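Subject: Sanity check before I submit

Could someone independently write out the structure tokens for this chain? I want to compare against mine line by line before I put it in a report. The sequence has 378 residues.
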Amino acid sequence: WKWKMVDSDHCRNCCSCHDSSHVDIDVEKETDAEVTVITKEIPTASPVVVDCKQRRSSRLQKKKPPRLPSTTSSFFYNSSQPTTLRRSRRVLRKVHESPNIWLVDDFLTKSEVQHVRGLVKGIKLLNSFTEGECGESIVSDHRTSTFTYLQKQQDDIIRTIERRAANLVGLDERGIEPLQIVSYKNGQQFKVHHDAGTLSEDGEVEMQEPRRLVTFFVYLNDLPEGQGHTEFPKLGISVQPREGMAVLFPDVLPNGEPNLETIHAANPVEMDHHKLGLNIWLTCRNLQVTACVGRGRTTIKKGKRKHKSTECIAKNPPPKPTEATINAKHTLKMEISARIVPTKDEGEVPIHSNVPKNEKTPKNIFAQIITSKKKKKK
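---
Independent answer below. Compare away.
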């Protein structure tokens, strides 16, 4: 048998036809008796269209979430952790094991609680809402409480609270979101939810960015039994609000996936009771850009230039000074005005005292001191 291509022109013309199938001449079988041409039909396949967006989204879905640091993972998922710990001058009590749920009785001091509560006095809190099909804002029935945000690192006390929370779990304080203050009254509540994302009906959690790793919930006042307690339905534990106490739990597993066991609910506050709480969320992203200096703006150095960042999340202006602070400043000014400046000739002359025009005024006194120094140098 000898194999060779035949009638290449016919094959080329055949391949350019527009039929759904074409005839391709492969080879001829040459023998002494006859030449037999073998033909076969090859159906033309429809072109495959690849959606670039779909392929890109599949790559994003395959991307692994950031894992918990080893110290944080051991803190929440190591069953050998003792029932009581002491960290950052605070005593932690373990109320559930695997995952470890901790209570910090004195997370905030009384002065810190009063300071945080004073930041929201006179500020109108926002209602929780969801986005409708047409993009409109719909008041949520699932979460009926009100809330507001503080500025990240707003003052020294807020910075101290953020640093303390980060040190307790071994995470970076730059990853803390702006603190959120929530208020519950007149039957308001927050039904079963997950802090790291949206909880669907089938029990899955759709994670949101920035990915929340750990939650601190701090109670800013006391409540009687059965009012406004925090309940973990899958873990079978309930936490009663106590002023300055914090409940501490993980939002994700060691591999970074959401922990479905830490879903929780804020039960309603009935009668004339009022519940105030503070949410501290630690994330995997550096949120230092949201830190504010002054009235909601900060300056970030990029190279040799200084660029002002966008408006801070906290849009509420700082509270107005009270009468007590105004009186304190006035008394301080009076004390400063009573200071005296000693001189060689005049003895002690009070500054800002009601000195007659004929006598030496404070400006003349300072001029006299400067001229005497110049004479000594000469």
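---
OP: Matches mine. For the report I'm noting this point. Confidence is low (pLDDT under 50) at residues 1-8, 10-31, 293-316, 339-363.
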